[in-house]
Each structure stands twice: as structure tokens, then as C-alpha cells.
Amino acid sequence: MITREGIAGRLARLDGIGVGQHGVTRLSWTEEDAACRAWFEDQANRSGLRIARDPAGNMWACPRAEPPWWGIGSHLDSVRGGGRFDGPLGVACGFEVAASSPHPIAVISFADEEGARFNTPTFGSKALAGKLDLTAVLSRRDDNGVSVADAMRNAGLDPGGVVDAAAWRSRLSGLFEIHIDQSTDVARAGTAIGIVSSLAARVRLEVELRGRADHSGTTPPEERRDALSTAARLIVIAEDLARGVTVTTSRLVIEPNAPTTIPSLVKMWIDVRALDAAEIERWLAEFARLARERAERSSVEMTIGIASHSDSTPFSDDLRSRLSLAGEALLAGRAPEVVCFAGHDAGILADTLPTAMVLVRNVTGVSHSPQETVNLEDAAVAARVVSIAIDDIEVIG
After folding, report:
1. pLDDT digits (tens, 9 = 90+) for 304-338
2. Rounded distance, CA 203 to CA 307, Å?
């Protein structure tokens, strides 16, 4: 029987990993990541599942039956200063379903979903889907100058073997992902869960501005090449153009970052999301034009690169229908269908496998924050709905 107590007990064993006064920080290929892998192995052993790790570092808890299996998965890594539930909730629910179902179910923890250390979001699921640009990704470096390739080696993985991860996809009949709602959409519908119809399109830009370091007191305005002042203006331009898109300047790196020195270098990351990818293209063209004009007026060199992008992604009609029927049986009413504006591993795999997502009600809508919270009774409902849907597939076909 899938219960809130069962989910709570599994999550409690994660609470000591990467938890500090500013929230949860579990970055990929770190000691905290290794501790999460140990937790995953313990949960698999408790559920009678076999442990495997694919060449991209995705963790698999596999049933004893021959594949293909239905998979349930999410991730265990986090953003810096995140919450307890974004990712781990789905993995814990997966173990609850696998432990209670009569059908062979694999539980998967995808590697580096958040991409917080190297700006490599959905690394593991992209490798599984055969969509990872290895040349571009493996050379990326974290704030300490460590490359993805070196970090993987330190974690016992061969970076050159990542391409072989895609072959593991044949072990799956399809994938379900359970995730905390990162909005109030489900809560406003007044139900425990929501079924995701599609993921919104999104682009993450990496903008670099190069000016000149100079004295903040003695350099007159007309002689300044201030990278940070230019960045501030670009942030305003980005938001002023946001018609039909959601725009967030999410990170800044500033050099030399000294109190009396004009900044010479700014790297900034801008997150753009929309229901329609065409709206993002419109925004991007306008932003690039105005940004170039602003940089030229400020005598600052600028480059704009696309760090990552995803098109709008629909989920399987068949799986959504089965989830809807299962939800009706448990909730005495239809669970709402919602569009999700966050990126997820299930979305990366959606055009290679039948996939579906269930969101768990989040009354505050807060996520990627220590204040993130969820009622685990709602999570148990989500796990039961997925279990019923899988049973429907296996028994009825």
C-alpha cells in the first residue's frame, strides 16, 4: 500500500545530505551527489531491486524481470539553496510504486537534472535520449575551474563512454515522472494532483560583456567601459520586451567585483519561456538587436550564446488518458491538465519514449527555495494514480 508515511520515511533518510541554513545544495559529481547515490542504493536494496549505473551516471533500480520495464524517475541533485522536494519527491514515490506493484518497474534517478554546477541541465536524460552535445558539454567548467569531464572521472565514470547511455533506453517501455508543482496551477484547481499536457518552450542565454577595469572615483563617465552598468540596462531591456514570454535574469558573474573598481567583465544568464517557441524567437531577435545597440553605445564588447534550449513538448495522449481515468477513480473527479513551464527529464525523453508527468499540489507555488513544501498525502495520491495507470497498461494493454 502506498502511503504518505512510506514516502516520508524514504525522504527522511536524505535530510542530512547537503542541507544547510540556506537550503539544500546537492550539485552533480560532488560528495553530496555520492551520498545521494548511496541513499538510492539503500532504497533499491530495501525494495528488492538491482542497482545499475549507466554510462552517463543515471542511477537505475532494476526489477529482476527481463526488460523492457515501465520506469518511474526524477532526480536527486538540486539548485544552490533549493528545497527538499524538487526531484527527490519523484524518486521516493517511484520506490513506493515499485515496492507495491505486482509489475516490474524500474526507478531512475537522472544525473545532473538541474545543471547547477556546470550549466548542463538535464544532462542524464539528454544522454539517454541521444541528444547530448558531448563536445560542448564535457569541456564546461564550474566556478573552481573543474571541467565536466574531470568531475565525471572523479565520480568513477568515463566521459568518453557517455554516448553509450542511449542504448539503455531500450530497457524502458515508457516513463512516468512525479514532481512537485512549481506553480499554484494545481492548487488553484482544488485537486491533489495535475496531469501535464505539455512542457513550455524555453531557452537559456549566456551573455558575456567585456569592458575595462578602471578607478571608480577618477574615471569620468565618457571614458568608462562599464560592463555591469551595461548588464543592468540589458536586464531592463529583456524584461521590457517580455510580451508573451517569461524572462528571468537568473545569474551574474562579475569581475573584478571590487568596491572601487569599474567592472570589466559580466557573464549573465537569461531564462526565457513561452507556450509557443515562435514567441521566444521574436523576443530573441528584438533583444539581440537592442542589446547590440546598447553595448556599442557603452563601448563594451558583447557575445550572446544559447546555453540550452527546448521546444514545446507534448506528453503521450495514451498515458495522459490512463492517468486521467486513474485520477477519477481516486479523486471522484477529473484531475486538471496543465502546461508546465519548468524543464524535466520526462520532457527530454518524450519524443523517444511514451512519457507522462503528474504534478503534486503546492499551495504556495514556491520552489527552488528552502520554503518549498508539499503535503505528502497528495504525493501518495500521485503515486497511486501512476500505479493504477501502469496496472491498467499491463492488465488491459
Report:
1. 999 888 889 999 999 999 999 999 989 888 899 99
2. 8
**Alpha-carbon gap, residue 18 to 125, rounded angstroms:** 23
Buried b / exposed e across 248-268, counting CB within 10 Å, b at 16+? ebeebebeeeeeeebbbbbbb
pLDDT given at position 207: 98
**Nine-digit cell string for 116:** 547547477
C-alpha distances in angstroms, 94 versus 14, 20, 44, 391?
Answer: 15, 26, 10, 14
Q: How far apart are CA 39 and CA 16, in angstroms?
A: 11
Of all helices (H) and strands (E), which one includes residue 198? strand 193-199
**Terminal-residue alpha carbon distance, the chain:** 23
Chain center to CA of 153: 23
The three cell numbers of residue 340 are 508546465
Q: Look at residue 336 and give its three-state secondary structure.
A: coil
What is the arithmetic mean of pLDDT over 347-365? 97
Exposed, middle or buried, 135 (CB in 10 Å: 0-12/13-18/19+)?
exposed
Cα–Cα nearest to 197, from 72, 370, 357, 53 = 357
Q: Name every residue whose Cβ is closer than 8 Å to that of residue 267 and which is 6 or more positions away in sequence.
A: 206, 207, 208, 209, 251, 252, 253
Measured on CA atoms in the order 26, 31, 34, 36, is the torsion positive or negative? negative
Number of Cβ within 10 Å of residue 12's Cβ equals: 11
Euclidean distance between CA atoms 315 and 19, whole angstroms:
33
The whole-angstrom separation of Cα 387 and Cα 374 is 20
Q: Which element (helix H / strand E) includes 288?
A: helix 277-297
d(CA 176, CA 52): 19
Which of 185, 203, 202, 188 lies closest to 358, judged by CA? 185
